Amino acid sequence: MVGLMECAAKECLDEFLDEGFSTVGISLNIKHLAATPIGMKVRAEAEIIGVEGKRLFLKSKPLTRLKK
Length: 68
Fold this sequence. Notes:
The chain is an alpha+beta fold. The protein has one helix and two strands; from the N terminus they run αββ.
């Protein structure tokens, strides 16, 4: 779950980074509220919610499709 969320956050920033550059996170605040059933697909979304100088603040969340 954390890996998916970090990938979504990095992809959110890709358009602002020079080719070959990446970014690293320094803090995570995560609540794992439920397990995902085996075989169910999971994806993650991220958005930039703040900027303070060189520090970026992002919100990322994993998503599953539990309802049809």
